[in-house]
Amino acid sequence: MREIGIIMNGVSGRMGYRQHLVRSILAIRDAGGVELPDGSKVTVRPLLVGRSEAKLAEIAAEHGIADYTTDLDAALADPQWEIYADFLVTKARATALRKAIAAGKAIYTEKPTAESVEEALELARLAQEAGVKTGVVHDKLYLPGLQKLKRLIDSGFFGRVLSVRGEFGYWVFEGDWQPAQRPSWNYRAEDGGGIIVDMFPHWNYVLENLFGEVKSVYSQASIHIADRWDEKGERYDATAEDAAYGIFELEGDIVAQINSSWTTRVNRDELVEFHVDGTHGSAVVGLFGAKIQPRNATPKPVWNPDLEDTHDYDEDWQQVPTNDVFLNGFRQQWEEYLTSYVLGTDYPFDLLAGARGVQLAEAGLESSRTGAKVVLPELKLA
Ligand SMILES: NC(=O)c1ccc[n+]([C@@H]2O[C@H](COP(=O)([O-])OP(=O)(O)OC[C@H]3O[C@@H](n4cnc5c(N)ncnc54)[C@H](O)[C@@H]3O)[C@@H](O)[C@H]2O)c1
């Protein structure tokens, strides 16, 4: 059985450890590999890379992993490792990806792929010139709720889609009287933080893969909470926005509005929800759930401020059943990427797709700075 050596850089981090190492690569290893269309299997061998040898040794011992190192250059020079996977803080990513591409490794990386669209595009070009396969995390597309939404779209349920309203967020504690549940760099612009850089790359691939390419963005970014406390309990100035209110024009005259916030208290069924209105029906989907209202079952409200409305609008929605077994989304995407890598097939979620995500984030920040709507030019490699 073919074994694919994967350099995993940043496995001590939140995403690197939980989603990529434990839930994806080790789950694949422990399941005996990924099954290819012809019934054969390929398996994976991780090499843990990081800055702290002690941390790596601890993770390796806990999970029965033979290989770890603090020497990234040596790992990149060793041909037994075919894929370089990156889960570092955003700021450290581009430098590491550049090195890995130069070493001829295939790339699999977290988003955002870089801090500027120029750099993201340069990485995509370098990878194309080097002829290496690239993959960028598109995990939200694999959420059960969004897979149900995809099925609704593909079945023609909506008729013509008119608009999408997204609500994402929850309260992230300031860190003084309760520890914050996200890393402090998320709130410092100088360290690659900010909810736009974090979330707009997700919104870009969600919108372009489900509804249509994003043509323009208007956004308002806010630092609602300026005083925060870091992992050591020390106060710092938040210099990156903790909320962003965006309007996105999509292909086909679809309007998407998405609020992203770490400063809101949840009053919805899930931490993210999308409400989609179409001529023939509407849907509200979250991480797991999805409910629909076809036009044949749409009530006919009449606005009357003098009369209390006793209609129960929640009752007008019907749950979409869970007819599939959904794998962890990160693992599902890893399996597809590995299959595509081995078979040499085209892989759509590549560094160019990643660059479009960075482009949307950059345009969102520009819009907020200037107060103007920003039109997105098509990104091309050549
Ligand atoms: N796909 C998603 O849903 C999702 C969710 C959260 C974060 N992310 C992305 O994942 C990446 C990591 O985020 P996280 O929340 O796991 O962060 P984290 O702070 O928990 O982990 C960051 C990792 O980078 C390492 N690191 C930090 N500074 C470094 C440096 N200067 N040089 C080399 N290594 C360094 C740390 O040791 C750690 O292993 C970010 O790019 C973030 O945007 C993606």
Automatic annotation (TrEMBL):
Residues 48-136 form the Gfo/Idh/MocA-like oxidoreductase N-terminal domain. One of its GO terms (molecular function) is nucleotide binding. The keyword Transcription regulation does not apply. Transmembrane segments: none annotated. It comes from the Bacteria. The keyword NAD applies. Keywords: NAD, Oxidoreductase. Residues 147-283 form the GFO/IDH/MocA-like oxidoreductase domain. Pfam families: GFO_IDH_MocA, GFO_IDH_MocA_C3. This is Gfo/Idh/MocA family oxidoreductase.
